[in-house]
Amino acid sequence: MRRFNNFKAMARAVMVVGAVVAVVSGVTFAALQSQQNTLTGNTIETATANLQISKNDTNYTNTQSGFDFSGIVPGGSAVPVTGYPFYLKNSGQVKLALKMAVVSTPSNPNNVDLSKVNVVVTTMGGNNLPTQTFSLQSLLNNGGVDIGTIDNNNSLQYKLQISMASDAVTGNSASLGGIDFAFTGVAAAS
To answer: What's the number of CA atoms in the CB half-sphere (13 Å) around residue 183?
Structure first.
């Protein structure tokens, strides 16, 4: 019985020593771990997109007064012959994809067929973009049409003209009013 008690005591001692070794090696292992290293106070910011408009390439703002397109002959040439100039400037930090839309509901007391009123946009100044023609209706319906891209810190000159198909109007005259052309820029892939 004494041997059994000695064996029991010895087994207990081995278990205690084993537990102490396990704790010490765990502490030693924990003591060898690296301290935490931290990058603190990070900020995430987007680039700036800033498109402005001008009628003279000098005074750029977010809004300019529009033009009076008068003397249009349905079925005739776009008016005015030389076009009304306007400029878009990208004062932001990224290249922008440009869109043009009509963001108002035009007054149309003579029921002009808006799908037969053409808005002619020509890019000037050697960037070789084609003249584009859009129906007034298309500028109202789809949230805008693409009119090119503009690099950051650059400006582009455009000219704007209006024409009508010969069957856009019935009667001896017609007018449309309250037409707000809007130009937007969305960050474009470089």
So the answer is: 27
